[in-house]
What we know:
The protein is α+β, with helices and mostly antiparallel strands. It is built from 19 helices and 19 strands. The strands form 4 sheets. Strands 6, 7, 8, 10, 15, 16, 17 and 19 form an 8-stranded antiparallel sheet that branches. A hairpin with a 5-residue loop joins β1 (4-6) and β2. The chain is globular and about 80 Å long.
Amino acid sequence: MRTHLQTNSRERLPAPAEKRFPVNSIVNREAFRRVSDRNVLLCFGRCYKWLMRSKDNFMRTSKLSFGFTIFITILMFSSSASAQQKFNHPGIFHSAEQLAVVKSKIEAGEEPWKSAYQAMKESSQSSLSYEPRARANVECGGHNRPNHGCDDITQDGRTAYTHALHWILTGKQAHADKAIEILNAWANVHKETTNKNAPLVIGWAGPHFINAAELLRYSDSGWTDSDIAAFEDYIRAVYIPVTDNRTPPTPNWLFSILEVRMAVAVFTEDEKLWNECLETWRHRIVTSIYQTSDGKEPVRFGDESDAFMRKWWYGAWQRGVWVDGISQETCRDMPHNQMGLKGMMTTAEIAWHQGVDLYGEEKKRLADYMEFHAKILMGDPTPMDLCTINKNSTRPTWEIGYNHLVNVKGMELPDSFRVIETIRPTISRRHMWAWETLTHADVGKYSSRLTPRPIASSTSSEGDATSAVGETINMAEDASVEEESESRAVWAEDFNSLTPGENWEGRSGLTVMKDGGVDNSQCLRVEYDIRQDPLGTTVRQFTKPVPPALEYTLQYDLYFEDNWSNSYGGKFHGFTPETHVTGCRPVQDHTWSARMVLRNRVPRLYLYDQKKTSRCGRTIGSDVRLQKGRWYSISYYLKVNSSADSSDGEARLYIDGELVSSASNMQFHAQDGDHTKINNFFFSTFLVRNSTGEVVSRQHMRYDNFAVLPGEVIRKSPGIN
């Protein structure tokens, strides 16, 4: 096993020749990748050589443990921390920490990992005599008729992934070599995939190939740089064109295709493709699974007719009985429905490892989906006799979603666990993800990192709040946050002294409303008319000056009226310096802005800062979804950087006193002076046209009790408190 320590610049450093690192290096990869100082790495190499020269076996073990402790200490105190990378690696379907947990459980002989590993070990896909069956042209018709290489590519993909897992968990070079052999064979031979089922087959096979490649690339597997480059070229040229379809009507097609595209985006660090994938997931998850909060019928993902919906919602549409968790393919059959479940969860898992919490954005929808269908599979009565359902067709694809929603999010999914008990340990099966129990069973219980490490770049379009690579921040409660009244406000407006019916600031669509506010007080009612602009509603924004300061908290209350739709995206209020920047224009040394965005009533921070790498602002996600028909208290704390060359700025968003989104180490401005501090409360609001095609011509939101206060002052409930 040749050991390579890979730096952020992808420079490979030679390891000591006389000994291999005794633990497969991928389980330590995150620590290695945080270090860019070559001297630290070389220092470790020299220390390692010294330790290995010991001739006393007992002392060798002791010194190794001591030496590794020294190395970790060096990492912790090294002043030369690396620049953030764009993507986390390994980070498609596995993190280094997750794999270390699995490895330790197997070595300890604990269940279900022991049995799961034994099942993988005994499978034909673990054979070292396996020969790849690569071919130039793969043709897959409907129902795989004709089948020219369709089974070959899916089988080879699962086999490459299986050997890559063996390599990571055992350190046996023969398994790494076999996985590399399979990947290289297809990268050098496969040129195209054709016919009706081509996108679906690539969706099944491609993620296994790419996850194997990720594990090999970010470990000391011996896979050469030239072969890695050839594999990158291969997946770009062969996987992406054939899956370039964001409108398949059924979830099992859509999310299988999306899974391979997300995997390609991470492996090749393609930010544009990554953003597109996030946008598609957020758009289509709400069209695939029904929630009563969606309205009287499921959300349509375009301008679909009733006839289209009847066809692709199968028997459910005709009955028109909508319950939380029912999906497009519920009334089709359970196998196809579970193919959709697999794709939804694997794509959310990829995003999680890249610092984007798609699980959290739709956790109720996903949990209801799993529990609804688990009951059916376990033979419980079909709710409301919705349709004739093919029961008892369980597929091995429940561990991933269950692990995250239960062991990370803390939800309860008892019926889903009933299903899991019948399928553990899961196997490698066509159309499904291989070895779910081995890699994902309950690993969230043992992970010290319950939120993903965010990636460095987090971009969004001004007109599209959903295309962001949003960072997910630890939601730890901050006990030091101050709570007090608005007596110290530098600017406030509760609308009670204004005349009902008048336009606030003389602007149409901003109307003072009588008896509509918190505690039946007066409030501001904002109308968003989607017909006013081809892309969305008219932008209404202006500033209210406040004394220049480094930090303020903006407080206000908001309320969604019943006609509020699941909008594609929208911007809401925040702060600016003397001269602000929005609209995807370039940030200058003295310009920045900090606002909130919403999509599907999920609030997020939205920041134009000096270090943003995208055309538009940086979006930082949250884990909550606001409901219609109730008031919420918003507290938006902002501290800009204290000097032009420092990065000590912070932003935090609280809903009803609970932290939901956070950013730190920010550089908002690069020019000193009062003009670059917080100078204005920024009233800024508009909506972008609904991505689902839903046309709601007029929508309304209410605002009340605006206040800007010095420091961090968190309001825990609506109203002045």
